[in-house]
Amino acid sequence: MDRRKALKKAGLLAGATIAMPSLFSILQSCKTETRLDWQPEFFTEEEAKTISALIDTILPTTDTPGGLDVKADMFIDKVVAQTYDAEGQQNMRDAIAEFNASCKENYGAIFPELSNADKTAVLKEAEASSPKFNPGVWGTTVGEQKPVGFYRSMKSMAIWAYFTSEEIGENVLSYDPIPGTYEPCKPLSEVGNRWSL
Is residue 47 part of a domain? Predict the structure, then answer.
């Protein structure tokens, strides 16, 4: 299996650099939808609840917004609906079903219905047992990437959705828009010294 197929099966987006403008527009479209009227584009109701519960456990609301506050679950739903092919979408459905079946077998209920303590225990087990991403150099994976599985793939997508959201980018992380505002007539006394750039 070549690297591209392995990444696809792991739920990663092949050619993410090329698709980035489209993905940012998908993320922006999530901002206008509210929790009450959100209808998943791809996920069934149970799958959507599973993804939302998973994101809320990985990125809970603390003194900063959580993953659900920035609608990372909606973003992932749109990414799967609009960028995955039929095989990738079926792999996602199968992975969610397998994840919930494992939770039911080991803890007595599907993931969204578990207690917070059990959800944390499930994720600790998944973190310990899931293959990890190979290190990368300048955006290129070092060595052959083996499939990382549902948990690691979903965690990666949740973190990606979280840190590329406008709310986190502007209000939580340091934000200095480049090139900045244009001020054509600003007194030199306000600027300080002359700038080299």
Answer: yes
